[in-house]
Specification:
The protein is of the alpha/beta class and 329 residues long. It has helices at 34-37, 45-67, 86-103, 112-118, 163-173, 180-188, 212-224, 230-256, 271-281, 293-296, 300-312, and strands at residues 3-8, 13-20, 24-32, 76-82, 107-111, 131-136, 141-148, 151-157, 260-264, 287-289. Helices cover 43% and strands 19% of the residues. Strand 4, helix 3 (86-103) and strand 5 (107-111) form a beta-alpha-beta unit. The longest helix is centred in the last third of the chain and has 27 residues, at 230-256.
Length: 329
């Protein structure tokens, strides 16, 4: 199938990658906009799209240079078309469509969430089918049943805040800065995860999540007790998120009779949460599949990997391809 040029601009990372045969990363250039959004405490859509437009051409040059290829050596182009910020998605789509039209290279649109799952296929050792995928990021928290490359089914998601969003909001309340995930993880290393018992919103209906109540509980607890150590708050909050995610994921594995769990999305760059999952689930005969942190957060390599298998199994989104901010799995 040759080389795929993949483009990812769904939120605040401008990323372009070249993937060979679906599992070999020839390049994976990622430009993070964190420093531009930090002072606002979150991603500003207008700034994000403008930064993508400013950086995407140089990122393309770097990706091709690192892969030691030019566009004549590209057989397919893959691009994220949703979900995400509409303006950001549009920048990546415009570049992908332009290259496709000028160079006469086939173009395929990829669901960003499916891409997170396929980050696990960027190696010679793939998770075996069937498996359950838990996607946890700043914008999404979802449980997915993956029977094979053509049967991917959403079985549960958050009703309100995503897990990563809860990290950001708690960090903002504690005046720790943005993004909240890595900051809270660092603070938590010096804290006691059993110091504060925060409530877990374990909704009885299926495999749905809720994290807004946990965020509120953190705020109320801190307002009632001004003497709490920030490190203990972070450690206890982080542990509660890990526990909530683990319980629902384990229930999903039991329900689907799957012994393999794939962890995907930026929240699983958190080493404490990964260790918690492995320590809790592997003794119960559930294999926990993880990947390096750089592949957990948004990147174009995962989009290229997903595209490889979509092309192989003749899975194409409906045309015309357009930015779809609320795209479902």
């Amino acid at each position: 199938m040759g080389n795929i040029l993949a483009i990812e601009t769904s939120c605040d990372e401008t990323s372009i990658s070249v993937i060979k045969n679906g599992d070999t990363i020839l390049s994976n250039i990622i430009y993070s906009q964190i420093k531009h959004h930090k002072k606002f405490g979150g991603v500003v859509p207008e700034i994000a799209s403008r930064m993508h437009a400013e950086k995407i051409h140089s990122i393309l040059d770097l990706a091709l240079q690192e892969a030691n290829l030019d566009l004549d050596n590209i057989q397919n182009i893959a691009v994220t078309y949703g979900p995400g910020l509409e303006g950001s998605l549009l920048v990546g789509l415009t570049m992908a469509k332009t290259i496709s039209s000028v160079k006469k290279i086939p173009l395929i649109g990829v669901n960003h969430l499916v891409g997170h799952i396929y980050a696990h296929f960027l190696s010679k050792k793939h998770p075996p089918f069937p498996f359950v995928a838990l996607i946890a990021s700043g914008g999404h928290t979802q449980l997915i049943e993956v029977q094979n490359h053509t049967k991917i089914k959403l079985i549960g998601e958050t009703r309100d805040d995503a897990a990563g969003e809860a990290f950001d909001k708690v960090a903002k309340f504690l005046n720790l800065g943005y993004p909240g995930g890595p900051i809270i993880e660092k603070k938590a290393k010096e804290g006691n995860s059993n110091a504060i018992k925060f409530p877990k919103a374990l909704l009885k209906e299926g495999f749905e999540f809720s994290f807004s109540g946990l965020k509120t509980a953190v705020i109320q607890t801190c307002n009632k007790n001004k003497n709490l150590k920030v490190e203990d708050i972070c450690a206890s909050f982080q542990h509660t998120v890990a526990e909530t995610l683990k319980i629902k994921a384990q229930q999903a594995c039991t329900f689907t009779k799957s012994s393999d769990l794939v962890l995907a999305g930026g929240v699983f760059a958190n080493q404490y949460i990964i260790s918690y999952f492995k320590n809790q689930l592997e003794p119960n005969h559930i294999n926990v599949h993880t990947i390096p942190p750089v592949l957990c957060t948004d990147n174009a390599a995962m989009i290229g990997a997903a595209a490889h298998y979509m092309i192989k199994h003749n899975i194409y989104p409906k045309l015309p391809l357009k930015s779809t901010p609320n795209l479902k799995i």
